[in-house]
Amino acid sequence: MSGTHNHAATATALIELHQLRKSYNLGQPNEAEILHGIDLHIAHGEFLALIGPSGSGKSTLLNILGLLEPLTDGSYQLQGQAVQGLDDEALTLLRRRALGFVFQFHHLLPAFTALENVTLPALMSEGRVSTKQREQARALLEAVGLADAAHKRPSELSGGMQQRVAIARALVHDPPLVLADEPTGNLDTAASDAAFALMRQIHERRGTAFIVVTHDPRLAQRCDRIVELVDGRIASDQAVAAP
């Protein structure tokens, strides 16, 4: 774990936010600023928890990081590329190359098998799935402990297994960053611990960076860094002491 921060300063940061602001209903009487000048630097290979009370702006920030919503002001660089001003096509390409997503509700397609769900990103970006991509998806299912479930549909899998399929799907194109929004919020404690342990394992094996939004202080303490948002501002940003 140590060492990530040492070379980070010399390499390009994975994410650089400078004075990032987000407002809704611009120019309307009900205009509201949700994020007020966020500065954030995230190095490659970090495992970070994003916490804060409901309404603090966590989901909004995650949507902006995920290139799902535009920022209003300030700057956002992802892998050294400025995001503002990119058209939809360029944003889509950058999202596919750089990001994987895991949500609280796994969003698996019920008619697809586990294997087909994992290969979905390839199908959507290229219109077909190559043999190599299918093999990679199979290897990922094996890595998440679901080698035997490749041909099962989501309805035949437990909630924890479905979330493991979703984690495999987020990793299929080997993104440098996975954004996980309450990834264990829908699971019982045992399944939640297993899904979280799996993400840590992938982080250690592949060096994938994770940003995990969580309400669970127990899980946040198992990350390497905790960034707390309160009322649209960063209230604290600290490394977690090793256990």
How would you summarize the topology of this molecule?
Elements (H helix, E strand, L loop, with lengths): L3 H5 L6 E10 L7 E11 L4 E5 L6 H8 L7 E6 L2 E2 L5 H11 E4 L11 H5 L1 H7 L4 H13 L15 H13 L5 E5 L7 H18 L2 E5 L3 H4 L4 E6 L2 E7 L4
Helix pairs in contact: 6-7, 7-8
Keywords:
243 residues; alpha/beta; Rossmann fold; 6-stranded mixed sheet; 4-stranded antiparallel sheet; 9 helices; 10 strands; globular; disordered N terminus
Give a verbal description of the structure.
The N terminus is likely disordered. The chain has nine helices and ten strands. The strands form two sheets. Strands 6-7-8-3-9-10 form a six-stranded mixed sheet, sandwiched between helices. It has a single domain, classed as Rossmann fold, CATH 3.40.50.300. The radius of gyration is 18 Å and the shape is globular. With 243 residues, the protein is of the alpha/beta class. β9 and β10 form a beta hairpin.
